[in-house]
Specification:
22-stranded antiparallel β-barrel, single chain, about 900 residues, mainly beta, Plug_dom, five-stranded mixed β-sheet, receptor
């Protein structure tokens, strides 16, 4: 759901603050700023030499201009010095890119309205899958890596035949440092140290990165290694409802999701209005504390015995660990029918007719739960890749790459405990003053454990493995100086498996079920930074998980496998391509581009438990994917681009499982669908780019994607034989293989369309006099609109797609000093369509994030830096239904980092 942009005050404050910062610094540094020379129209942007942030912008423009297709790039300002602390947050600066944040940092990206599952990511040319925690998709998790490990990011938004298939949105290339990238021989090194402070957790944590590179005197061989270590300790404070649901006035009190009774309801109209209104399923204030540590290592060996030959071995390892504790208290009656809402009496209430919700209520016979949980996630990523390049003759050359990577996502520990106080009177919530931050009072002293009983415990562990291996090769032949033929292919294997274990029973009995829990609990408090209304209970007792671990007799009981958590996908992808590149003069204009065709064959073997039977299903499909890119330069500073391509993106891994449930007496099956075909689309792109001065760009692009096949969930009656399941699953049951079954599964739906516009503007203000000539601006705006078929005649926009997004950066740079302030806005987007519990949709409202940074070169080798992230402490505002009912209103605070950087 899109809400009006209402951050004008924040924008003004950030703008004034940034201007004050830059203006205040100006007198100290003005003497170092030489008058800016007059700029001439650029014929080749490579001719101007600048340093620092402007240097990285110039490199990015060089790449964008030279490519045949639509490409945007970001480069490190210096060795191991990326312009953002998080890779996802760096990529969001590019047009068409938005990010999803979790716990205050970017995790996944969407490109031109298409989410992470539609975006391929390559590290050093090798397709990679980075997974953290419960990730079961093809989406790449950028939080796995420190940004210091990389020196460039390229986002390819149009497809060419030589680029491997698998993306509807974009292909993202991440490149780590290599030793021969640096000028001169001998050693190059860098070391940075930072302390980062979060104003919500009030903790300071370290961030350290280093790089060491060496090359021989002849520049033919070099070795590089880099390391990055960082910690984060954010706190997440929020109010959430776990969705909203309604009763049914056509049913009796105490039936379905209806309350047991309503004291003030004296007319049938009041009863109808109450029972048809939505109420929060689990209204509660929550907070969680997190401890994260990330460690990454890269090594590169580069051998270039001649200009004709190069061999590069890149090695990479990254580890990301997260520990989280989440002590919360809530009213759970509203989320349960029997034994819950059906027993709850409404003592007083008010209805918000615009949202059709019970905005205020006082309730009796409410079950109150205090819970606390601990989870530890451990994730590791490993990659080795070997890239070879050789020129056999002046006209014939070849490339080859071989490599493998593995991502391990583990949750070795996850356990939680519950204190319950049932049938309490006087529970109150009140949204009338603030529809995001209500008053909540539980009706009794929730800091005392006297009314609570230790009732339940939950314990589990699990994980997933993602494995990729690639062998690829290609040849290029210059048929003429203007015309090059390329041909090649790849063989890729992809493996995915998950496993899980859980306790056999959760309800505690006997001596483990303790009445009066003061000795097993601890008092926690929300400190009020959410501006919670007066009268709310902000302190309460929760389970002390470490005390209870030692107390429970069943804590060390062996866990049992979870059948639904065990699944596998084995995939083999084979592809070949032929492509022609051209670069010539036509009617006095430079004309360049490529045209080609790719053939891709995909074979999958999917495995999973259907009830207690382990099922295996094979599938195969093929795609023929033509592509065309054309760049015309009517004059030296203008590029007009055209692109068209057939593209495909393979189904999400979780959707391919044959695991689920089978009921032969009722002829019902609910599972994934191992016979899914990929998402398929036809893309069209048109762009114009005006390089009106050195480091200057004004560009506009329009794009259209006709999505031919969109995967959705349906329930339909189909023959058993069409499911690809073995007939032996029906042996000894009342059902036979020639019967129809009611099947709930994923299917390839009717598809839809997506179109949009990107506008990009970048310019140093060198035309201004004196001090003002050191400023510059980067900005972009993206508009995207989509409509896809979700099944059963339901149509709506794509999930994770924002209609409007913009990114802006104002920067200032002189010889020793540089500063910049950035804003990133994205309008609301859907998470699910339709929503659950009778809500029309689920989504996230608009956000705008402000960041700022400055640095001062104390000497040629030593730099001081100051960075501020999330200056406005932006809230993540999730909602349900088109009426904008609050689902989760969360913030994680601001972060400020101070550091020193040394290079030699």
């Amino acid at each position: 759901m899109e809400r009006p942009f209402n951050h004008a005050r924040t924008l003004c404050i950030a703008g004034v603050s940034a201007t004050a910062l830059l203006w205040g610094a100006a007198p100290a540094f003005a003497q170092e700023a030489a008058p800016a020379p007059e700029q001439e129209e650029a014929t080749t942007v490579d001719e101007i030499v600048v340093t620092g942030f402007r240097s990285s912008l110039q490199q990015a423009l060089n790449i964008k201009r030279r490519e045949a297709g639509a490409v945007d790039a970001i480069f490190a300002e210096d060795i191991a010095d990326f312009p953002d602390q998080n890779l996802a947050e760096a990529i969001q600066r590019l047009p068409g890119v938005t990010i999803d944040r979790e716990n205050g940092q970017g995790r996944t990206i969407s490109v031109r309205g298409l989410g992470a599952d539609f975006t391929r990511v390559r590290i050093n040319g090798l397709e990679a899958q980075a997974a953290y925690g419960g990730n079961r998709s093809r989406g790449f998790d950028f939080s796995m890596f420190a940004s210091e490990l990389f020196n460039s990011i390229k986002v390819r938004k149009t497809q060419s035949a030589e680029i491997e298939e698998g993306s509807l949105g974009a292909t993202v290339d991440l490149q780590t440092g290599r030793p021969l990238d640096f000028k001169g021989s001998g050693f190059n090194s860098a070391l940075s140290v930072q302390g980062s402070y979060n104003d919500l957790s009030e903790k300071t944590v370290p961030r350290v990165a280093g790089l060491l590179s060496w090359s021989n005197d002849s520049g033919t061989f070099g070795v590089l290694t880099s390391v990055a270590y960082s910690e984060r300790a954010p706190i997440s404070e929020s109010f959430n409802t776990t969705r909203w649901q309604a009763g049914d006035a056509n049913a009796a009190y105490g039936a379905g999701n209806n309350f047991a009774g309503c004291i003030p309801c004296t007319t049938s109209g009041q009863r109808t209005e109450l029972l048809n209104a939505f109420y929060p399923r689990i209204p509660r204030y929550t907070f969680g504390s997190f401890n994260e540590d990330r460690l990454g290592l890269t090594t590169s060996l580069q051998w270039r015995p001649s200009d004709r030959t190069e061999v590069v071995l890149d090695l990479m390892w990254s580890r990301f660990n997260v520990e989280a504790e989440s002590p919360n208290i809530e009213a759970i009656s509203f989320s349960r029918a029997a034994g819950g809402v059906r027993d709850t009496i409404v003592r007083d209430y008010a209805i918000d007719k615009d949202k059709n919700v019970i905005s205020y209520g006082v309730f009796d016979n409410v079950d109150i739960r205090s819970e606390n949980g601990f989870t530890r996630d451990e994730s590791n990523f490993y990659q080795a890749s070997l890239n070879l390049r050789h020129e056999f003759t002046d006209r014939l050359r070849g490339t080859a790459k071989i490599g493998a990577n593995k991502s391990e996502a583990r949750t070795p520990q996850s356990f939680s405990y519950m204190f319950d106080a049932n049938n309490q009177n006087g529970f109150t919530y009140d949204f009338r003053g603030n529809d995001r931050l209500p008053m909540i009072n539980y009706g009794f002293d929730v800091t005392s454990g006297s009314r609570f009983t230790l009732t339940e415990r939950r314990k589990s562990s699990g994980g997933a493995n993602f494995e990729n291996s690639v062998f690829a090769g290609a040849l290029e032949y210059d048929y003429t100086p203007e015309f090059t033929i390329k041909a090649g292919g790849e063989y890729r294997t992809y493996g995915f498996d998950t496993f899980g274990y859980q306790q056999a029973a959760s309800v505690l009995t006997g001596a483990d079920r303790v009445v009066g829990v003061d000795a097993l609990g601890k008092i926690v408090s929300i400190d009020g930074k959410l501006d919670i209304p007066t009268g709310s209970d902000l302190s309460y007792i929760v389970p002390d998980i470490w005390k209870i671990n030692e107390f429970l007799s069943v804590f060390d009981d062996e866990l049992v496998p979870t059948y639904n958590g065990i699944r596998e996908v084995e995939e083999t992808d084979k592809g070949i391509f032929v492509q022609a590149d051209f670069n010539t003069e036509l009617l006095g204009m430079t004309v360049r581009g490529n045209a080609g065709i790719r053939r891709a064959i995909t074979e999958t073997t999917s495995k999973g438990f259907l009830n207690t039977d382990y099922v295996t299903v094979n599938n195969e499909y093929a795609d023929t994917l033509p592509s065309f890119n054309l760049a015309i330069e009517p004059r030296d500073d203008l590029v007009i681009r055209f692109g068209a391509a057939k593209v495909m993106s393979r189904p999400a891994l979780g959707d391919l499982t044959p695991g689920g449930s089978l009921s032969t007496p009722t002829r019902r099956v609910s599972y994934g669908n191992p016979l899914l075909k990929p998402f398929r689309a036809t893309n069209f792109d048109v762009a114009a780019e005006w390089y009106f001065q050195n480091e200057g760009l004004l560009a506009a692009a329009v794009f259209y994607k006709e999505i031919d096949s969109f995967i959705t969930t349906v329930t339909e009656t189909v023959p058993w034989a069409s499911l690809g399941l073995d007939d032996s699953l029906l042996a000894g049951t009342p059902a036979s293989p020639d019967e129809n079954f009611d099947v709930t599964r994923k299917v390839n739906g009717a598809g839809g369309s997506l179109h949009g516009l990107e506008i990009q503007y970048q310019q140093p203000f060198s035309f201004l006099p004196g001090f003002w000539s050191n400023f510059g601006f980067i900005g972009n705006y993206t508009y995207v609109k989509s409509e896809v078929e979700y099944g059963d005649g339901r149509k709506g926009p794509l999930t994770n797609q924002s209609k409007n997004a913009f990114n802006t950066t104002l920067y200032y740079e002189v010889d020793r000093f540089q500063a910049r302030v950035s804003a990133a806005y994205r309008s609301g987007y859907l998470l699910a369509f339709p929503g659950g519990n009778g809500n029309s949709e689920e989504g996230v409202n608009d956000t705008v994030n402000f960041d700022a940074s400055m640095s001062y070169n104390i000497s040629d080798n030593l730099t001081f830096s100051l960075e501020a992230l999330n200056l406005s402490d932006e809230f993540n505002d999730r909602y349900v239904d088109a009426t904008d009912r609050v689902s989760n209103y969360r913030h994680t605070g601001r972060e400020v980092a101070i550091g020193l950087r040394w290079k030699y």
